[in-house]
Amino acid sequence: MKRKITLKHIARELEVSISTVSKALKNSEEISRDTKEKVQAFAKLYNYKPNNVAISLKNKRTKNIGVIIPEIVHHFFTTVFRGIEQYANQKGYNVIVCVSDESFDKEVINMELLANGSVDGFIMALSAETQLKNDYNHLKEVTEQGIPLVLFDRVADEVACDKVLINDREIARQAVNKLLDQGRKRIALVTTDNYLNVSNKRARGYFDALEDRNQEIDENLIIKLPYTYLGMDKVPIQAFFEKEKVDAAFCVNEMFAVHCMRVAQDMGLKIPEDISFIGFTDGILSKYANPTLTTVAQHGEQMGEIAAKMLIERVEQENGDDEEEIFQTKVLSATLIERDSTIN
Amino acid sequence: MKRKITLKHIARELEVSISTVSKALKNSEEISRDTKEKVQAFAKLYNYKPNNVAISLKNKRTKNIGVIIPEIVHHFFTTVFRGIEQYANQKGYNVIVCVSDESFDKEVINMELLANGSVDGFIMALSAETQLKNDYNHLKEVTEQGIPLVLFDRVADEVACDKVLINDREIARQAVNKLLDQGRKRIALVTTDNYLNVSNKRARGYFDALEDRNQEIDENLIIKLPYTYLGMDKVPIQAFFEKEKVDAAFCVNEMFAVHCMRVAQDMGLKIPEDISFIGFTDGILSKYANPTLTTVAQHGEQMGEIAAKMLIERVEQENGDDEEEIFQTKVLSATLIERDSTIN
DNA sequence: AAGGCTTACGAAAACGGTTTCGTGTTAATA
DNA sequence: TATTAACACGAAACCGTTTTCGTAAGCCTT
C-alpha cells in the first residue's frame, strides 16, 4: 500500500524546503529551472497530488456545493440534479447530495451539517413539511453566515435568496384553457393536500383558466390525493369520476395522471374521447403511458444548470464585504407537450 | 453578516488559550467547572460549531463517501443511491455523487478528484465504456492507496474489492423458465450490445434456461438494441417480431420491455395471450405500463444499504497496517414480480 | 520549610498546504 | 574595491482543530 505523498516527503527527499517544493510545483519565477525540473519530475514520478482538504482549509473554499432535495427516486429532481452536476463539474465543483425525505428535521440537520465548512453554497428544493410549517430559520441562518443559497421549484417568498422557477400558474392556465378549447365542460383538478407550493400555483392556474371564461369554480370537481406515490387507492378516484361525470382531468403530477387514466380505463372510459388528461412533469411515465400523456415539461435539466450557475457566480464573487445583495428570481417557461391523452 | 466563530475568537474573548477552549467544549476533566461553564455558555450563545474541514485535516477522515454512477436519471441507480444515502447519513457520513455518464474518462477524472482527500471511500457502478475498455487502473490506484472501494451491480472480476450483486444469471434463468413453463416456444432475448456485464449475465441465464430443456439456441431470436433510452426506433423491432413470430420476450431492462410491448400492441398482438413479456428493474414503468409488466425486482435500496455498510466498516476498521485484505462479494436474491404481461 | 502532589491551564506540534518576507550568495555596477 | 541588485531559497505564519506535554500555583505532608 503506497500512501499518498505530501510536500513534506518531497522536500525531505530532495533536501529542499517545503516552500521551495510548493513553489516549484506551481512553476514559480522564484525557483531556478534546475530545482523546478527536479521537483516536478519527482512529483510526477510519485504521482503527487495536493490534498484537497488542506487546500480547502487554507482557501476557505471547499469547491463543494450542497444539494438538498426532498426525494431522489424522482424523475424531476434527478433531472434537475443532472443539470446541477454537469455545470458544477465543468466548473470544478463537486456536489454533495442530501435527501430531506420531505422531512423538516432532516432538512435542518443536513443543512447544519454541511454548513460547517463542508460546502461553499446550497441549492435546494424545500421539503413538503418545511413548506407546511412555514419555518425557514435554518435557511436564514445559513444565508446570514454569508453562505449563498439558491432555491429551485419549491421555493418560499419568505426566504431572501436567488431562485429558479417555472411559470407554474401560467402554464397550468394554458393547459386548462386547451381543455376548454376542446369543448371540455367538466374538468377535474387532481391535486395534493394544499401545503405544496407548486400544487397551489398549478391550482391557481386552473382557477385562472375558468375565470377567463367566466365559469364558476365547482369545488366538487377538485379531488385531493395524498402526496405519496405508492399505495394510492383507486376507490375514491373511481367514485369521484362516477359521481362527477368529468370529461377531462388536469393533474398536478404525472403519477396522478397515469393513475387516474388507469382508473378511467378500468371504468370503460375511452381516452381521449370520453375523458382527456393533462399532467405535470414530462417523465418516463408520460412518454410510455398508454395512451401517452399530454404533459407539462418543466425543463429540469436547464433549471439545474441555471441554479448552479447562479450559485457559483455568487460563491466566486463574494468579495468579502457585504454586497448589494440583490437577489434574482429566474422564471423559466414550461412547455406543454401534447400527446394522445388529449385530442390533437 | 455574522461570520462563523472559531476557537480562536472564543479564546480571545474569554482571555484563555485555544487549548483550554477546545478542552472545555469537550468537557475535559482537565478544566475547572467554572471555566467549562463559561466557555460552553459563550459557545452556545454564539452558536459555535467546529469547522468540518479542519477536523478532516486533523483526523485524516472526511466522513464523506464518494458515489460514482453511470447515470442519475435512472430508476435503479437512484434507488441504490437512496439506500446508500440513508445508511451513510445515519452513520454520520455525507455522500458526494459524481455521474460518469457512461464515459471512461469522466469516471477516471471524478475518481482522481475525489481520491485526493475528499472522501474516505468509494461506492460505484462501472460505466459502460469502462467495461468495454476493460481498463481498471483508476480503481487499482485508489485501492492501492488504501482507499476502500465497493462495487455494485456493474462490477468486474479484475478488480479486487468488496462487491454487491444480484444473482442476475439465475433469476434470468428462472424468468425464462417461467415463460417456457407457460408453453412459450419462441422466446426472444431483447438485450443491449454485449459489453454490459449485467446484460451478459442475463443473456447467459436465458441460455441456461433453454439448455435446461435441451433446446437449441436460435440466434435469430436475439435482438440487440442500443443502450440509449431515448430515440429507440420501432421499425427494427417490428420487423423482428413479424419475421420471427416470437410468442414471448425476455428483456434486459424495463424500458426495452415497455417499448417492445408498445410495438407489439401496435401490431395488433394481445399481451399476454399472443405474446408475453418479462423485464428487468422493478421501476415505475413496470407498475404503470399497460398491461403492467412482469419484471425482476433488483432490490436496489437494499443493495445500496449493504454497499454502504460494507464500505463504512472498511473505512472504520482500517487499523493502519495492511490487513488480511479478504474481500467479500455479497449476492442478493432478485425477485420475479408477476404482473399482467405474463399469464398468471 | 522543603518536597511532592494535584489542579488548571498554556505552549507547541501536528494535519498539508500557500504565501509573505527575510537573507545569503553571486554578479553587476560605480 | 565597495555598493547594490538580482537570484534562489528557507523560515515562519496561517487556515481551525486536537492533543501531548510542560509548568505555575496551591495544598498537603513530614
Provide the CATH superfamily of the largest domain in chain A: Response regulator
Indicate the structural class of chain A. alpha/beta
Largest interface: A-B, 55 and 55 residues
Could you list the spans of chain A in which at least 5 consecutive residues all have pLDDT below 50?
Answer: none
**CATH fold name of the largest domain in chain A, please?**
Rossmann fold
Overall body shape of chain A: elongated
Nearest-integer average pLDDT of chain A: 93
Tell me roughly what share of residues is in helical segments of chain A. 40-55%
What is the spatial order of strands in the main beta sheet of chain A? 2-1-3-4-5-11
Computed over alpha carbons, the radius of gyration of chain A is: 26 Å
Tell me how many strands of chain A there are: 12
Count helical runs of chain A.
14
* Number of spatially distinct domains of chain A: 3
Largest sheet descriptor of chain A: 6 strands, parallel
Percent of residues in β-strands of chain A: 15-25%
The end-to-end span of chain A amounts to 65 Å
The CATH class label of the largest domain in chain A is Alpha Beta
Q: Give the helices and strands of chain A as they follow along the chain.
A: HHHHEHEHEHHEEHEHEHEHEHEHEE
What does it look like?
Two copies of one chain form a homodimer. Chain A has 344 residues and is an alpha/beta fold. The first copy, chain A, is built from 14 helices and twelve strands. Chain A folds into three domains: 7-50, no CATH class; 61-166 and 300-333, Rossmann fold (3-Layer(aba) Sandwich); 168-299, 3-Layer(aba) Sandwich (Rossmann fold), CATH 3.40.50. The mean pLDDT of chain A is 93. Strand 2 (94-99) of chain A pairs antiparallel with strand 2 (94-99) of chain B. Chain A binds a DNA duplex (30 and 30 nucleotides) through helix 2 and helix 4.
